[in-house]
Design goal:
It catalyses: (2S)-2-[5-amino-1-(5-phospho-beta-D-ribosyl)imidazole-4-carboxamido]succinate = 5-amino-1-(5-phospho-beta-D-ribosyl)imidazole-4-carboxamide + fumarate; N(6)-(1,2-dicarboxyethyl)-AMP = fumarate + AMP. The protein has 20 helices and six strands. The protein has about 475 residues and is mostly helical. It folds into three domains: about 100 residues, Fumarase C, Chain B, domain 1; about 250 residues, Fumarase C, Chain A, domain 2 (Up-down Bundle), CATH 1.20.200.10; about 60 residues, Ribonucleotide Reductase Protein R1, domain 1. The two termini are about 60 Å apart. About 5% of the residues have low confidence.
């Protein structure tokens, strides 16, 4: 084992352990405002501020005055201005409390003492974090963070990539292409129609993600409002909880243990993972089309294709995306399966697990960036597709035998055993246009049918493929 004189462990500035905070940081930086530790603490402060305002606005606790509009604005400004200094202050408080949410409570009480001095409102500070367990604050914070990350960062990028695929499908709708089923030449299609299939799948998953529910709860240590009712027995605490959760733009969950059950997270992550898998399918298909020469990669983009082979332009964007989609899905899958489990009324597995949400979305966002850049660097090569079609006239055997079957069904004589006759002509051998036309001429077909089949080529045998692109929503 090699030994080194220098260590990176204590380097300043710190050296990133993972790729997302290292070489790929610029691509995923937008997620930091939503899914980082700092974002979690800022959102906790936001939830605590809004809970305090809600309690006083609704006059839930008798004898406590409402915060004025000026005081409310001042408290909300602390949330809006939450930055590096506040992160450092919270870390300092947490070293004393050894509890992250308790540190947020003390942090806010310091601010409240400025907004509403203790000599005037000595008891107001006791409504900070009133009747809350840590999970009341955390579950609402995570719901808001994930909602923001999905709606403001991930979905716009995912829609942009899906729109790229749609645009390519529309542009290439009429370009005929030999299909391959089981890796073998099959009934021709168009490149645009095949891209439209992928675009349709991507957009369907995006509609599911866009329609996701983000649930939240605020009901105490075991979901019973025990402390709430002990302190203020005459308040309608479920109604207070519901109105507060909904005021944050979340869906209220009325029945939980100490933790919000996280089912909504599992549902969301399953949909994002499914989108990732469709995108992975696009990557492998496009990679294969590149290897077949159906797409050319645009040169001159400042990339080195191969360190030793100067003629190569490697499809690295799609390969990079595949890898990151797989990492993202591994994380999304374990998040979805773990978060819906909790021993009895509470265990802490979800607390540790949720700290990986940012990484799961980060790898997906990185993949989207690579796919977008990869697609932008492609040019279709119709001549390569045309050459492949012209080498595979045998794919028209399907058309001929289908026409014969239709005639046989109508009672036209001489159309018996169409499949077997075409099988004998085409299976295991290549034929050309002359071979096929000679075969058609010997079938005794009605004149119009014979003329239609004689005029057909592999490039024209694409059915309704171009028009099917119009089904994209």
């Amino acid at each position: 084992m090699a030994s080194y004189d220098a260590s990176f462990a204590d380097a300043v500035p710190p050296v990133a352990l993972g790729a997302l905070d290292g070489r790929y940081r610029p691509v995923v930086a937008a997620l930091v405002d939503h899914l980082s530790e700092a974002a979690l603490n800022r959102t906790r402060v936001h939830v605590e501020v809004e809970w305090l305002i809600h309690l006083t606005d609704q006059q839930v606790v008798p004898g406590v005055r409402r915060l004025t509009a000026t005081e409310q604005q001042a408290l909300r400004e602390y949330v809006r201005g939450f930055g590096a200094e506040e992160v450092a202050e919270l870390a300092e408080i947490e070293r004393e409390t050894v509890h992250d949410v308790k540190a947020v409570e003390y942090f806010l009480k310091r601010r409240l003492a400025v907004v509403a001095p203790e000599d005037v409102d000595r008891g107001l500070a006791e409504l900070v974090h009133f009747a809350c367990t840590s999970e009341d604050v955390n579950n609402l914070s995570y719901a808001l963070m994930v909602q923001g990350a999905v709606r403001e960062v991930w979905l716009p990028k995912a829609h942009a990539v899906a729109d790229q695929v749609v645009a390519m499908a529309q542009e290439l709708r009429d370009v005929p292409m030999l299909a391959h089923t089981h890796g073998q030449p099959a009934t021709p299609t168009t490149l645009g129609k095949e891209l439209a299939v992928l675009a349709h799948r991507l957009r369907r998953q995006l509609r599911r993600v866009a329609g996701a529910e983000y649930l939240g709860k605020l009901n105490g240590a075991t979901g019973t409002y025990g402390a709430h009712l002990a302190a203020v027995p005459d308040a309608d605490w479920p109604a207070v909880s519901r109105s507060f959760v909904e005021s944050l733009g979340l869906t209220w969950n009325p029945l939980t243990t100490q933790i919000e059950s996280h089912d909504w997270q599992a549902e969301l992550y399953a949909d994002v993972a499914r989108f990732n898998r469709v995108l992975h399918n696009l990557c492998t298909d496009v990679w294969t089309y590149i290897s077949m020469g159906y797409f050319a990669q645009v040169r001159g983009q400042g990339t080195v294709g191969s360190s030793t082979m100067p003629h190569k332009v490697n499809p690295i964007r799609f390969e990079n995306a595949e890898a990151n989609l797989e990492v993202s899905n591994a994380l999304l899958d374990v998040l979805g399966s773990t978060l819906v489990q909790s021993r009895l009324q509470r265990d802490l597995t979800d607390s540790s697990m949720q700290r990986n949400i940012g990484s799961a979305f980060g790898h997906s966002l990185l993949a989207l960036d690579n796919v977008g850049r990869g697609l932008a660097g492609l040019d279709a090569v119709p001549s390569a597709m045309a050459a492949d079609l012209d080498r595979n006239w045998e794919v028209l055997g399907e058309a001929v035998q289908s026409a014969m079957r239709a005639l046989a069904a109508r009672g036209v004589a001489g159309m018996d055993n169409p499949y077997e006759r075409l099988k004998e002509l085409t299976r295991g051998r290549r034929i050309d246009g002359e071979d096929l036309r000679a075969f058609v001429d010997g079938l005794g077909l009605p004149v119009d049918v014979a003329a239609r089949l004689r005029a057909m080529t592999p490039a024209s045998y694409v059915g309704a493929a171009p028009a099917l692109v119009d089904f994209l929503e």
